[in-house]
Amino acid sequence: MDEVSTGVALGFLGAASWLAVCGRQAALRRARTVLAGGGTAGTRPPPGRRLADGLRRVRGRVRPEWSALAAGLVLAALGGSVLPVVAGAVGVPLLRRTRRAARARRHRERRQDAVIALCGALAGEVRAGRQPGEALLCAAHDSGGLGDGQAAVLAAARFGGDVPDALAVAARQPGAEGLRGLAACWRVAVDQGAGLAAGLDRLEGALRAERDRRSDLRAQLAGARATAVMLAGLPVFGLLLGAALGADPLRVLLHTGAGLMCLLAGGVLEGLGVWWVTRIVRGAEAES
Q1: Start and end of every Type II secretion system protein GspF domain (predicted)?
Q2: pLDDT at residue 237 above 80?
Q3: How far, in Å, CA of 119 to CA of 121, rounded?
Q4: DSSP annotation string for 244-287
Q5: What angle do CA 181, 183, 188 make, to 5 degrees?
Q6: Which three-class secondary structure string do you get for 14-62?
Q7: What is the tens place of the pLDDT at every residue in 170-191?
């Protein structure tokens, strides 16, 4: 009996020691979390924030071009034909190309704004009495207008290299064309002793005026873009109208010879119309 009691006591003592060690480790992990994050241990974000974060992660993983295939699957199930699935599969790369073009345009516009900010910040640093190389180092870190060419440009400015050539190379990035003007201002200021701040002010004003002109043109072309969107949505409206009137447009289009001919002709004309309007818009933007 004494041996049993001793064994039980030793078991409880071991369990207590194990719990104490685990509790200490948990406390240490909680302390590290608090010290690293600067917050309070055990706090959780509010439900609204967790939901927003979850939706943001889902939206980042789901590509919008796959909606064409999903719509094709729905129409195939409703119409009993495989043709909508084929059309949806063809639309996936087209929508992916459109999405990538829109993303590239946004990146280009952000870089253009960063170049304008770089010119303004550099002019301010030069007026504050800094040397051009030192001023470029400070302004580049604040604005980020050099993009992928920042390392080469800053190395040239720090170690006495050819800064205008480095700026010209960095200007090859989409949206960084304004760096060519910055390179010209730098070369004139160094070779002829002209005022760098005055040239940067004029360059910043010109870049801002160009950006405003593009914004005005985009606003004027909003009607043409709306026309393209309306042309793309007219077939869907026609199908819904036919279904509301009691007809069966999917059966006619997908299971009759005349319907297939109308579907083919309509698809070709629809594609030509959207392509023509898009070409007009892009041509106007390129000429500006």
Answers
A1: 120-240
A2: yes
A3: 6
A4: HTT--HHHHHHHSHHHHHHHHHHHHHHHHHHHHHHHHHHHHHHH
A5: 95
A6: HHHHHHHHHHHHHHHHHHHHHHHHCCCCCCCCCHHHHHHHHHHHHHHHC
A7: 889 888 888 999 988 888 887 6
Contact (Cβ atoms closer than 8 angstroms) between residue 163 and residue 136: yes
CA distance 129 to 132: 9
Neighbour tally for 65: CB within 10 Å: 18
* Residue 47: per-residue pLDDT: 59
State both tokens at 137: 């180092």
Residues 6 or more apart from 280 whose CB is under 8 A from it?
Answer: 224
Which amino acid, 255? H
Structure confidence by residue, pLDDT tens digits, 34-44:
444 444 444 55
Report the C-alpha gap between 63 and 92 in whole angstroms: 10
Task: Kindly report, residue by residue over 57-82, the tens digit of the pLDDT.
Answer: 655 566 777 777 787 788 778 777 88
- Which of these, 185, 193, 141, lies nearest to 163 by C-alpha position? 185
Whole-number Å distance between alpha carbons of 112 and 107: 9
CB atoms within 10 A of CB 17: 10
pTM value? 0.66
How buried is 186 (Cβ within 10 angstroms: 0-12 exposed, 13-18 middle, 19+ buried)? buried
Please tell me whether residue 9 adopts helix, strand or coil conformation. Answer: helix
